[in-house]
Write a structure and sequence with these properties.
With 552 residues, this protein is an alpha/beta fold. The protein is built from 22 helices and 15 strands. Strands 3-2-1-4-5-8 form a 6-stranded mixed sheet. The protein has a 5-stranded parallel sheet with strand order 11-10-9-12-13, sandwiched between helices. The longest helix is centred in the N-terminal third of the chain and has 24 residues.
């Protein structure tokens, strides 16, 4: 199955490249590319000027991950560069496999002329191949990857996620003929990272922290006590996070410092809760400006009432309907907090095993809304439930708002349904603490066994749903909200890619003061203990707006 899937994937990729090449010679495309190049050049000239601040604490070697070529990322790098006065340090850009010439030109415009080529930093050696063969020889099941002994004690679960993402499969296929190449890639990245992140390196600025490239750079930097910041963004806003301990690499989502919201005043809690209540209405109405809304609500026209849903499946009215919301198979499961299961396929299959033996509930399995956007094998291709009348799959044309209205209780790993459903008063059971399981609004599981046991029970009976709904609203407002004074700072989301440049070109001319003020806030945050810039900004504000409504 993996070989066929890889053949089809490569065929689709080659076809896409051919169509792309044909499109590039069209006069209209050539004109668009000229406008894009001009917008990019002017934007980066603005960023070069704005990013040059006063001397900061770093005089030595500062590494910038330049493997991710995106205008939003260059914008965030420039903000951070100004905040810490990094233009006065020894700055080095780390080029990657894709778009290296474009990234190098951007770095040069910013004034960063020194670069290293990550893929070409060191050769792939016979010893790497031998080590890959040794690791694979001792791997009988995909779960064995977690116990691999890799250089620098690189986590096996990071290796697992990296391989799974390349295979684009629900589970790592250890019989894949390309597996050896994938393992060599990991070993090569670790060696390259060890040569790039030297003992002289003081600071590493990353775009991401997962997979073998970013993960290797981050892991080696942690081993060598190098300061690390990830200049990530969400919905057009900076979500900087800093870390220095191995476990922190898996904490990619901003957290509040207290599970009981003790650091938020009553006014802050109510304002955040009100914000999220409004956002949930926008999201379910299909008007919120984010990709999840687009795929789950906006483009799904078929709305079924509960009675219609029951009639469709031939279900009795007296049984609770349990909605099981699947994550996407290869969306870096372990970086989102998975500990109790091997991967999302293990999670889903374990739930279905319980569901088939639990006919006193009706079970509705829901695919991830961005399944189409991610590509790869779908939930409908992997899971067959026709032989069990009380276990059924959601039709992919159905609108998620209608499904949420019809379902009584929900099961998730750590998806946003945990916020959305609870916020409107419906109970949610999660298998992992993840990024929100400890905030007293979902029913959390202490272990794999505890989760599977709870599934067959009415686990929601002892939940205080009024308090749970409010806590979910507060946390949802925290995650999807921004301080009102940041509203003018919002730019289009990274997913807009090159289309961001025309916006930024004009935006930077009109918002120099705002840029400088935000850089000063980033500078202050860097000296504080708080790991996440977003948390720092939310805790320091009283008035908020939804980030997805503010984004362009």
């Amino acid at each position: 199955m993996s070989v066929l899937h890889e053949f089809l994937r490569k065929s689709k990729f080659r076809m896409g490249n051919t169509l792309y090449a044909v499109k590039q010679i069209h006069p209209k495309t050539k004109a668009e590319n000229r406008r894009y190049a001009a917008d990019r050049e002017l934007t980066e000239q603005h960023l070069s000027r704005l990013s040059r601040g006063e001397k900061g604490p770093y005089r030595g070697r500062v590494l910038y991950d330049a493997t991710f070529d995106n205008p939003g990322y260059w914008y965030r790098i420039s903000l951070f560069r100004r905040a810490l006065g990094l233009s006065h340090a020894e700055e080095v850009g780390v080029l990657g496999k894709y778009n290296a010439p474009k990234a190098q030109k951007t770095l040069s415009t910013l004034g960063i002329d020194s670069t290293v080529d990550f893929p070409k930093q060191c050769p792939r050696t016979a010893s790497m191949r031998a080590e890959a063969k040794r690791l694979i020889a001792g791997t009988k099941t995909s779960a064995d990857i977690f116990s691999w002994k890799l250089p620098f004690d690189f986590p096996g679960r990071v290796a697992y996620d990296s391989i799974q993402y390349k295979q684009r499969l629900p589970e790592v296929n250890v019989k894949d003929p390309l597996l050896e190449m994938y393992v060599i890639d990991i070993l090569h990245c670790l060696q390259a990272a060890s040569e790039i992140v030297t003992e002289e390196t003081e600071l590493l600025v990353l775009s991401h922290a997962f997979n073998e490239t970013y993960g290797a750079l981050a892991w080696v930097a942690m081993k060598r006590n190098v300061k690390i910041v990830v200049a990530s963004g969400i919905f057009g806003m900076p979500r900087f996070w800093k870390f220095s301990r191995p476990g922190d690499i898996f904490k990619i989502t901003a957290q509040l410092p207290s599970e009981n919201f003790e650091c938020l005043s009553n006014a802050q809690q109510e304002n955040l809760a009100e914000l999220f209540r409004g956002y949930v209405q926008e999201r379910m109405g299909g008007t919120a400006q984010d990709i999840g809304t687009e795929y789950a609500y906006t483009n799904k026209a078929v709305r079924l009432a509960r009675s219609e849903l029951q009639k469709h499946f031939g279900w009795d009215d007296d049984k609770p309907i349990i909605g099981v919301y699947a994550p996407h198979w290869f969306d870096t499961p372990h970086f989102h907090g998975m500990e109790n299961f091997r991967d999302y396929l293990d999670w889903m299959c374990s739930i279905i095993d319980v569901a088939r033996k639990t006919p006193h509930f009706n079970w509705l399995l829901k695919n991830h809304p961005c399944e189409e956007w991610y590509g790869g094998i779908t939930l409908h291709e992997v899971i067959a439930t026709e032989e069990h009348a009380h276990v059924r799959l959601v039709d992919r044309t159905w609108n998620n708002a209608a499904i949420i209205e019809a379902v009584d209780a929900f099961v998730s790993c750590h998806g946003t349904i945990g916020l959305e459903a609870t916020a409107i008063g419906k109970p949610v059971l999660v298998s992992e603490s993840g990024w929100y399981g400890g905030y007293n609004f979902v029913k959390s599981s202490s272990s794999r066994e505890d989760f599977l046991t709870q599934l067959s029970e009415q686990w929601w009976q002892d939940m205080d749903m009024e308090q749970a709904a409010f806590n979910a609203q507060v946390f949802g407002g925290f995650y999807f909200g921004i301080p009102k004074d940041m509203e003018p700072f919002v730019i289009p989301d990274d997913l807009k890619q090159r289309d961001i440049y025309p916006f930024l070109k004009t935006y930077l001319e009109d918002h120099e003061t705002i840029f400088a003020e935000e850089a000063r806030r980033v500078q202050t945050w860097w000296t504080e203990e708080e790991m996440y810039y977003h948390t720092y900004r939310v805790l320091g504000a009283d008035d908020y707006v939804p980030i997805t409504s503010a984004s362009k």
